[in-house]
Amino acid sequence: NQALQKRKETSEERTVAAAALAKRPPVSVVPPTPMRWKPRVELTGTLKPWREAEIGFETPGRLVKLNVATGDTVKAGALLAVLDASRAGAQVNQAVAQTKAAEANLAIAEDNLRRTDALIATKSIPEAQAEQARQQVALARAQLEGARATTNLAQQGAGMHSIVAPFAGVVTRAPTAIGSVVNPGVPLIRLEDVTRFRLSATLSEQDVGIVRLGSPVTIAYQGHKVVGKVIALVPS
In what order do the strands lie in the sheet with 181-182? Predict the structure, then answer.
């Protein structure tokens, strides 16, 4: 009985296996298609404005005019702030007066040299006096050049009492009021160009070899995606 039962179970298993084999879909062979592998590197970085500048004055002074506030949008060349230029104007006037005095001294020295040369031609005075007159002319010319240089420097200093926007952008930092005394070279206003952005990230040593200038980049930020490209590689 056990042998008959065993043969019966084996026959049923074979029947089930044959039925399952009959239900299998036919096997099809697909030839491979050659493709170029494109590596993918995932990075996390920091978005920065395309351009940014810390703007300040080149000369000290008291802030008397402020045309922008934090959050304002300005155009390139827009006047941002102005310092008190009354002292600078007085220095320009003083330098101009010194230049005019030097020009007058040169004219007197040249006239004296002409009269001296005429007297030398008639041998009315010794040659030594002519040499002295020539030296006075040379000294007057040097003093005039120095006065003109001082005038140019004063005029340039007067022009440094205002600052303008070097490019169009958004003011992200600015003083809240006028009246304070600013020092030269100290940043007073911060300007950012946010029409485009730069993403700064760090590559691993393993990924450096597969990234090239101009490689496409997909930047994902808060559900938005923007397509860019690699513009710089710094081996730091």
Answer: 162-164, 79-83, 61-66, 181-182
Spatial distance between the Cα atoms of 47 and 49, rounded to a whole number of angstroms = 7
Beta strand ranges found along the chain (DSSP E)? 46-55, 61-66, 73-74, 79-83, 162-164, 169-173, 181-182, 189-200, 216-221, 224-229
Q: Is there a contact between 113 and 191 (Cβ–Cβ < 8 Å)?
A: no
The number of beta carbons lying within 10 Å of the beta carbon of residue 74 is: 19
Query: What is the identity of the amino acid at 76?
Result: A
Contacts of residue 111, Cβ cutoff 8 Å, sequence gap at least 6: none
- The yes-or-no verdict on residue 116 having pLDDT over 90 is no
Whose tokens are 């070899």? That residue is 209
Q: Distances in Å between the alpha carbon of 61 and those of 56, 65, 86?
A: 11, 12, 10
For residue 71, the model assigns a pLDDT of 94
- Cα(115)–Cα(135) distance, rounded to whole angstroms? 15
- Amino acid identity at 211: V
Q: Which residues contact 15 (CB under 8 A, 6 or more apart)?
A: none
Residue partners of 18: CB distance under 8 A and separation at least 6: none
C-beta separation of 236 from 205 below 8 A: no
Q: What is the pLDDT of residues 69-94, one digit of tens each?
A: 999 999 999 999 988 866 656 666 77
Task: Evaluate if pTM is beyond 0.85.
Answer: no
Dump the DSSP string for 77-145: T-EEEEE--HHHHHHHHHHHHHHHHHHHHHHHHHHHHHHHHHHHHTT-S-HHHHHHHHHHHHHHHHHHH
Q: Alpha-carbon distance 215 to 213, whole Å?
A: 6
